């Protein structure tokens, strides 16, 4: 890579994706002011088709395949992803060259504006909470049985508008990191603590994917590679990978890392799986101690400039989040009356609660003002129905991958220079050990039942429609 060469950066076209990509580029320009960057946007399959379920722990390549193809053929040099969208096993020749300092990984409660005095526990009985996540659904059903949980479709912008302008939902649950990066922190009613609602593997972290053999790009990304985040997400991704990352079931984690004396850190990982209704739960935790070659310091640490942290035992650990972006306005180009009568909400295909939806349905695109068109749709052509067998096969194949990495990476991540191979291996082993504890207690049986229900309901609906 010559000094004059333009570095091409791949990104999805969504507003949040572009904010994240521009953030990474701005950080790189601070380190390399003479480098030129060009954003190459493209739509993934997940952006084009609405009615494909994508549980947060399930098939992820629908959001990344086109970008990774462009990366493999050299059209682009690296891609910025939300780490939770990346499979735990990457395509041959691909690595995660860096993960940035993690934004808040927790979930956020967003209440209707006239209900902000409430919490999840104090909301009136039968209040409807909108979410499109198996993980959140199962935990809400278990911990807040007085509430109802229903799917809410659309992107972040659309979900907020549906909460504000319709009477369907009293609250929605979203990733805090997405709201923060969009500059919409003021919409957060409450940050849900990890013990109240455990989060998705890798949530809140940005990952930069590149070719394994592109050492120039890996070197370019090195200043952005955060040590604490690398160790934490390696353990989390290893946990999910050992369980079988393609299973359609509620899986969640939370991790913490705390500096100790003598360049040692204490890494803790909690993980859990649930049945779809939240009634069955298997939860456990594991801990390990790692040696690093650099002190982990909070960005606001008062001892940051000292060679030794004076009060290390009282340090809370954890790094500050990424710089906030300019606050964009909520897009209101879709008329309120169309939002209220959204045909996607009237789709005759009953998608299981907890499924994830992205993009636009090609069979409803351009017909938002005529919901009668639904009666004329050929259900056999529904992409949700047509993709089920293929998705099921992909999920089964992913489980067979086991713990093999395609290269010398750690669940896709290159080794961090201040962690070393041994500490990265220990972080990976921590996730494996925790997963094995849950498997011993019956986690795979719960996950298999959940997967069978998700795919079984879809097949049943197909039979009924025919």
TrEMBL record:
Enzyme class: transferase
Record flagged with keyword Transferase: yes
Listed GO CC annotations: cytoplasm
Ranges where the Porphobilinogen deaminase C-terminal domain occurs: 231-285
Keyword Transferase: yes
One Gene Ontology molecular-function label: hydroxymethylbilane synthase activity
Keywords for this protein: Porphyrin biosynthesis, Transferase
GO biological process, one term: protoporphyrinogen IX biosynthetic process
Coiled-coil intervals: none
Xref: SUPFAM superfamilies: Periplasmic binding protein-like II (SSF53850), Porphobilinogen deaminase (hydroxymethylbilane synthase), C-terminal domain (SSF54782)
EC assignment: 2.5.1.61
Pathway: Porphyrin-containing compound metabolism; protoporphyrin-IX biosynthesis; coproporphyrinogen-III from 5-aminolevulinate: step 2/4
Domain of life: Eukaryota
Domain spans labelled Porphobilinogen deaminase N-terminal: 7-217
InterPro entries listed in its UniProt record: HemC, Porphobilin_deaminase_cofac_BS, Porphobilin_deaminase_N, Porphobilinogen_deaminase_C, Porphobilinogen_deaminase_C_sf
Cofactor dependence: dipyrromethane
CDD domains on file: PBP2_HuPBGD_like (cd13645)
Entries under Gene3D superfamilies matching the protein: Periplasmic binding protein-like II, Porphobilinogen deaminase, C-terminal domain
Family label: Belongs to the HMBS family.
Name of the molecule in the record: hydroxymethylbilane synthase
Species whose genome carries this gene: Callosobruchus maculatus
């Amino acid at each position: 890579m010559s000094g004059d060469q333009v570095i091409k950066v791949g990104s999805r076209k969504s507003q949040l994706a572009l904010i994240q990509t521009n953030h990474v580029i701005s950080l790189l320009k601070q380190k390399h002011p003479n480098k030129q960057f060009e954003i190459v946007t493209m739509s993934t399959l997940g952006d084009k088709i609405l009615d494909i379920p994508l549980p947060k722990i399930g098939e992820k390549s629908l959001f990344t395949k086109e970008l990774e193809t462009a990366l493999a053929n050299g059209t682009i040099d690296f891609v910025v992803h939300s780490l939770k969208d990346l499979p735990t096993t990457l395509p041959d020749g691909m690595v995660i060259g860096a993960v940035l300092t993690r934004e808040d990984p927790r979930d956020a409660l967003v209440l209707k504006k006239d209900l902000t005095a409430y919490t999840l526990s104090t909301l009136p009985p039968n209040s409807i909470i909108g979410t499109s996540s198996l993980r959140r659904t199962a935990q809400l059903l278990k911990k807040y049985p007085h509430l109802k949980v229903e799917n809410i479709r659309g992107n972040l912008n659309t979900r907020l508008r549906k909460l504000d302008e319709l009477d369907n939902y009293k609250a929605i649950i979203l990733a805090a990191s997405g709201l923060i990066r969009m500059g919409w922190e003021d919409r957060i009613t409450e940050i849900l603590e990890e013990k109240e609602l455990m989060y998705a593997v890798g949530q809140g972290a940005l990952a930069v994917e590149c070719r394994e053999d592109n050492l120039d790009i890996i070197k370019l990304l090195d200043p952005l590679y955060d040590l604490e985040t690398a160790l934490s997400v390696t353990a989390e991704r290893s946990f999910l990978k050992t369980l079988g990352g393609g299973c359609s079931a509620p899986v969640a984690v939370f991790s913490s890392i705390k500096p100790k004396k003598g360049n040692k850190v204490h890494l803790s990982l909690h993980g859990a799986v649930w049945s779809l209704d939240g009634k069955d739960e298997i939860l456990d935790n594991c801990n390990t101690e790692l040696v690093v070659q650099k002190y982990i310091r909070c960005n606001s640490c008062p001892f940051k400039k000292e060679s030794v942290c004076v009060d290390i035992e009282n340090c809370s650990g954890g790094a500050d989040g990424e710089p906030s972006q300019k606050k964009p306005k909520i897009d209101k180009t879709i008329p309120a009356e169309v939002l209220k009568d959204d045909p996607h909400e009237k789709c005759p295909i009953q998608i299981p609660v907890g499924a994830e939806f992205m993009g636009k349905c090609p069979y409803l695109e351009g017909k938002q003002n005529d919901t009668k068109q639904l009666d004329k749709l050929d259900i056999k052509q529904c992409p949700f129905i047509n993709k089920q067998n293929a998705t099921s096969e992909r999920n089964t194949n992913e489980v067979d991958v086991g713990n093999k990495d395609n290269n010398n990476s750690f669940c896709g991540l290159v080794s961090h220079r201040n962690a070393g191979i041994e500490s990265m291996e220990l972080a990976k082993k921590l996730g494996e050990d925790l997963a094995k504890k849950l498997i011993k207690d019956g986690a795979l049986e719960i996950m298999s039942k959940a997967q069978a229900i998700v795919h079984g309901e879809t097949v049943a609906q197909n039979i009924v429609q025919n």
